[in-house]
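Hi F.,

I've been meaning to write this up properly since the lab meeting, where we talked about keeping a consistent format for the predictions we share between groups. The idea is simple: the sequence comes first, exactly as it goes in, then the structure tokens exactly as they come out, then a line or two of notes. No screenshots and no reformatting. I'm using this chain as the first example so we have something concrete to point to.
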Amino acid sequence: MPDEKRHTAKRHAWSAALVAGLLLAAPAAQAQTLRIMQNIDAPHFDPQRTTWGPGGSIGNMTQSTLLAMDWDGKTAHPYLAKSWEISPDGRTYTFKLRDDVTFCSGKKFTAEDVVYTFTRLKAPETRAPFGWRAGEIKGLRAIDAHTVSYELSEPYSDLPLQLTMFTNNIINKDVVEELGKDYGTKGIDGTGPWCFVSWQPRTETVMRRHDAYKWGPKMFQNPGPVKYERLSVRIIPEESARVAAMMSGQFDFTATFPATFIAQAKANPNLVVEKVDSNFQLLYYGYKTTRPMVSDARVREAMNIAIDRAQIVRGVLLGNADPSLTYVAPNALDYNPVTAGIVKEDLERAKKLLDEAGWVPGPDGIRVKDGIRLEPKVYVTAGGNSVKVGEAIQGFLRRIGVDWKLQAWDSTIAPVKMGEQDYEIWSVTVPYISAGDLMALYFDSRNIPTPNRMNWKDERTDRLLAEAKGALTAADRARAFGQVQDLVTREHLWMPVANITLFTVHNKRVKNARGHPQYAIGFYKGLDFTP
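Output, unedited:
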């Protein structure tokens, strides 16, 4: 048999065997299904190759990290690693691993899986946009079957909390190499509480209970297995359809209930609405600074100060957010209060800045320079807040002679399109856990072209980020991250608009349902969810 056919046959055999095993493991009669609703899908579920929340959501269900994030969004608990020690210089972590963990395929979890996971994460060919979350790894070594030496080239005080993030989920070398480019679409083999069964893009992901799972982190009452036999994650892009589906009891839980209808959900006797504490989500529009139309900081500032954020929050988001003139929320770790005075809404100053930058009003009021109209292309994801908010911003900016051209992309291709260079502005709602988390993700030049879609390459920014990430004291870390905030805000690299409130909505028939703040995903393991 030719190699390619042999590889395909083995791959299909493995997938079929796993699905068959899962089906046999579950009782045949009327499996209890937990039904979750999301508004957008992911392009794949390989945790190392995405920044996309929906992909991370499935990753958290099917896979596990060395450490787990508490409900407070700030505390790291033991998970696959039952304990860890840090060397005095902050460069070497020694993780003691659980010896009772298995993958869905039945393979035993060992230190070699940890070494392989982070080696692949850091490999250039993986192109992991969140690879920085694992720190600057100098060496990985399996001391024995259940002990790992994790050596950094520089101290990284955020490492324990960062290791709770989905990008650092532990993966199975055998399955990754067997599936090749199909890993994360045709199959996943994880140590999470749910086992991957199938994925129908833009429609549904199906999982089954991992019956062997009993290693849930301590912030859950139930260490496992989960109390449902089946999990269905359905994609419902249209807001009205999501409202109707939840109101009529078709779904059990969602973290993507339209904010404009939260009041109706609260009034529904069969639903429970909860605000997720310690959640930070910034809805912003970013500028690709290497594009001539937005390369001038004066143009970027003009757009930033010409909109009325309070009106957008009231009229578009119906109060389910807070207007934001800063990149980092005031109650987030290492927030720099100086940045609160940089962006000041001022329509007349916006017009003056555009005049100074050489953009003059044309016959129809839209500004022109060197024969080019000030019509930046703006990429957004269909089904999210960025579309509606972008339409409101369009109206505000026409008052100063700027005409945004909005282009909405389906969630399965939006990450690819936003990774391209043929646009001026894009928008996402970015979840983060601290000022440092946000600054290190977006503004490090090593993260060009994504997620540093601004193509921001600045020596001082990189130096300050390095100082902050390598700081041995909280004060030094806060100082350096604060200086980064000040620098990038004065460059007007983003248009901050609103800090989005994360609500979860669940049906009262589900007991012990609780939303989690990690990356604004909402659903995290689901170990305590009870039929």
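Notes:
The two ends are 49 Å apart (CA to CA).
The longest strand covers residues 137-144.

If this format works for you, I'll send the rest the same way.

G.
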